[in-house]
């Protein structure tokens, strides 16, 4: 029998809002030894996810995109808009400035197998679990949750 996401997820996850100071989110991640947090609005609806990957920009900084000079013109060899987005993440002070604002989520009635496929396909480590009617965050499913369930047989 294949379990559902709702049976394995961690219910009532710690959440933050877009206005949460970045330093607060960093402390929550460190104190609770977790790698990401759902970001919710004031109705508890998912608006983003902030993860340790998003925060790495804070420490590593951003390299300017490669360019060449040709007849006093700058020709970028990579998309400069991407550089601007990365720069914004590196300099951000709130969760909203750094978070992924296009989060992938799942419903609690989906199977673990579907969740695992989605996580593999999208190369993500966590899925916020949303109520299908209200779109409020009910829980979070991580790769660790799936592995622990596999270990229990």
Task: Show the helix and strand layout.
Layout: H1 5-8, E1 10-11, H2 22-31, E2 36-40, E3 46-51, H3 52-60, E4 67-70, E5 73-76, H4 80-91, H5 95-98, H6 112-122, E6 126-130, E7 137-142, H7 143-151
Antiparallel strand pairs: 1-7, 2-3, 4-5, 6-7
Helix pairs in contact: 3-4
Give me some keywords for this one:
3-stranded antiparallel β-sheet, alpha+beta, two-stranded antiparallel ribbon, CBS-domain, globular, 153 residues, 39% helix, 7 strands
Summarize this entry quickly.
The protein has seven helices and seven strands. The protein has helices spanning 5-8, 22-31, 52-60, 80-91, 95-98, 112-122, 143-151; strands spanning 10-11, 36-40, 46-51, 67-70, 73-76, 126-130, 137-142.
Task: Explain what this protein looks like in three dimensions.
39% of the residues lie in helices and 21% in strands. By secondary structure, the chain is α+β, with helices and mostly antiparallel strands. The protein has a single domain (5-151), classed as Roll (CBS-domain). The strands form three sheets. The protein has a three-stranded antiparallel β-sheet. Strands 2-3 form a two-stranded antiparallel sheet. A two-stranded antiparallel sheet has the order 4-5. The model has no long low-confidence stretch (mean pLDDT 85).
Strand-residue proportion: 15-25%
Arrangement of strands in the largest sheet: 1-7-6
Radius of gyration, in Å, reads: 18 Å
CATH topology: CBS-domain
CATH level-4 homologous superfamily: CBS-domain
Largest sheet: 3 strands, antiparallel
CATH architecture: Roll
SS-based structural class? alpha+beta
- Oligomer designation: single chain
Shape: globular
Q: Which CATH class? A: Alpha Beta
Helix content: 25-40%
Number of strands: 7
Mean pLDDT across residues = 85
- Number of separate helices: 7
Uncertain stretches: none
Query: Helix-strand pattern, N to C?
Result: HEHEEHEEHHHEEH
Number of separate domains: 1
